[in-house]
Design goal:
Shape: globular
Order of helices and strands: EEHHHHHHH
Structural class: mainly alpha
Largest sheet: 2 strands, antiparallel
Distance between the termini: 22 Å
Strand content: 5-15%
Radius of gyration: 18 Å
Strand order of the largest sheet: 1-2
Length: 171
């Protein structure tokens, strides 16, 4: 499929039609060739955000591969801020850069102080699904092929290890 570096959005309003023409940020990663950023990497003080941006841009450009946008991981961030994946995607689609996206996240949803963002990011880095009875069996099955100990491996460490293995397979 051919992708253009711009988008046109048409709004039908009472008595008139508005067209919005904007250029997309074409610097997103091709997730069929490389993994998204680590969920540990912070953008605007938020853990997960860089990875979420990478997946959203790849979805918009049609090169998301086997990754998923608006998934449970992304929704950890969206839930913390009280925003919807569709609203986030609509803003990313305007061609905003990482800094602009982080500022949009700051302005939208539930207001959060810097100390709250930092505390949430630190806490989410420790998440381990082994300690969640509803997710334990699934988590153990995911970590087993990688030789990781589910009892001691946080979610983000598993994602990084899985990305490395998946990236080698794609190469």
């Amino acid at each position: 499929m051919f992708r253009t570096p711009f988008r046109i959005r048409v709004h039908f309003l009472p008595g008139r039609i508005e067209s919005v023409f904007f250029f997309m940020n074409t610097k997103g990663k091709d997730l069929t060739k490389e993994p998204p950023r680590s969920p540990k990497m912070r953008v605007g003080g938020y853990a997960i955000l860089g990875r979420t941006i990478d997946k959203c841009r790849a979805l918009l450009w049609g090169n998301i591969g086997e990754y998923h946008f608006d998934c449970p991981l992304d929704n950890m961030l969206f839930g913390f801020k009280g925003v919807k994946g569709d609203d986030f995607k609509a803003f990313v689609e305007t061609g905003a850069n990482d800094e602009e996206i982080a500022k949009w996240l700051d302005r939208n949803g539930i207001p959060k102080a810097e100390k709250d963002k930092q505390a949430w990011s630190e806490e989410v880095m420790k998440v381990n699904f082994y300690h969640n009875p509803e997710k334990r069996d699934w988590y153990v099955e995911q970590l087993k092929p990688l030789g990781l100990d589910p009892k001691t491996t946080p979610l983000f460490d598993w994602l990084e290890a899985d990305d490395k293995v998946s990236d080698k397979k794609a190469a």
